[in-house]
Amino acid sequence: MVVKSSKSQGKPQKQGNIFDAFAKQMLGQILMFVDFLLYYADKKFVAEISLKKIQPAPTHYFGKTGKERIADLVFQCFLKDGGGDQMAIIVFEHQSKRLKEIPFKLLKIASAIWEGEKKDGRKILSAPYFLVLRTGKTRLKQKPPKLSASFPKGRDGKPVGSNVEVEYDVVDLPAWDFDELVGGPELRLTLGMLHKMAGGNIDDLPAALRPLLEIANTEKRIDLAKDVMPFAAQVFAAHDRRLDDEQMDEILKPIFKGKERAMIKTIFEEKYDAGVTVGKAEAILIVLRERFKKVPKATENAIRQLRDPVALDSWTAYAASCQSMDEFAAALK
User: Fold this and answer.
1) Which of 17, 129, 305, 326 is paired with 152 by a 20 to 30 Å CA distance?
2) 131: which strand partners?
3) Distance CA 168, CA 224 (A)
4) DSSP classification of residue 6
């Protein structure tokens, strides 16, 4: 199931894991995730599960540290008539690329879940439901890739041998018109921020904040603003721009009163330097991936540890001029 709609306006200049982190932070809240399911998941699946019993999946299904699910949100959804024994696993995958590797990744996740459940002595394994939220630079122009596409073909043009296909649904966010976003105000705020920031329309930030006006509870409205503004600052920084104090005042003026606005701005300024650092680190990684395709994990971690904005600027320039990934990694040590 690919959600279709008209093209979004504008294309992102740069992207990075700041989008993954924001998606996980916001949609990791169970109530918001339930809202997401209600509006964007397969209706047949939603009809089978008890929305009141959704809970995070056990971490040990994904290894001792759970690192395998950094960019994923995995929940257990008890079936309405399953008596608590049979569960369905939803994997939320925030994916910005063409989805070529998705079937392999989902099969790996399902295998990890089943292996963990077998060790736990479960006789009825979880039935996985995979939902991919894609925030790429352009909309997905072909059908989501299948696992069998990577297998050899016989004389009839069909994959040879036996294979297990991985089924998944795709919500292709950049292809949507902004006004087509549905759900409660918190969900539309989250998806709207991803839409505007990942879509490259960062000057439309005020429009993305409109759902805040629907939230009557002032404290909740402020808390949500405190969650989304640092993310916006990181995206601005990744585009080599600063979300400054004057802009903040203009953006927040239609939504908050003087004291509330001042409080958010103060908190924002305290977090801004950290946001700039993250944004600059993401910019370095983007340059390296564009030039050398893959960045070793150790090098990526070392880049994320850098804190000096001036040094980060120097490393960005070096990332654009070095001759190889090995040369950059050696200089970083």
Assistant:
1) 129
2) 92, 169
3) 30
4) P
Q: Is a pLDDT exceeding 80 seen at residue 269?
A: no
- The conformation of residue 58, written as its DSSP 8-state character, comes to P
CA distance linking residue 156 with residue 141, whole number of Å: 26
Neighbours of 20 (CB within 10 A): 18
The helix/strand/coil state of 83 is coil
| Residue length of the chain | 333
The pLDDT tens digits of the residues spanning 165-199 come to 888 998 888 666 788 889 999 999 999 998 888 87
The pLDDT tens digits of the residues spanning 32-78 come to 999 999 999 999 999 988 898 888 877 666 655 444 444 477 888 88
Per cent of the chain over pLDDT 70 is 81
d(CA 118, CA 112): 10
Let me know: does 203 contact 222? Beta carbons within 8 Å.
Answer: no
Please list, in sequence order, all residues whose beta carbon lies within 8 angstroms of the beta carbon of residue 199, skipping any fewer than 6 positions away: 8, 9, 10, 11, 12, 174
What backbone phi and psi angles, to 5 degrees, belong to 231? -65, -45
Model pTM score: 0.71
Burial of 120 (0-12, 13-18, 19+ CB in 10 A): exposed
Distances (CA, A) of 174 to 53, 140, 201, 223, 329: 31, 9, 11, 26, 34
Helix axes 17-27, 218-238, angle to 10 degrees: 170
Domain boundaries defined on the chain: 17-177, 215-332
Query: For the chain, what percentages of helix, strand and coil (3-state, to nearest 5) are there?
Result: 55, 10, 35
- Burial-class residue 148 by CB neighbours within 10 Å (0-12, 13-18, 19+): middle
Residue with tokens 């399902």: 110
User: Encoding tokens for residue 133?
Assistant: 């939220």
Please give the backbone phi and psi of residue 72, each rounded to the nearest 5 degrees, phi first: -115, 155
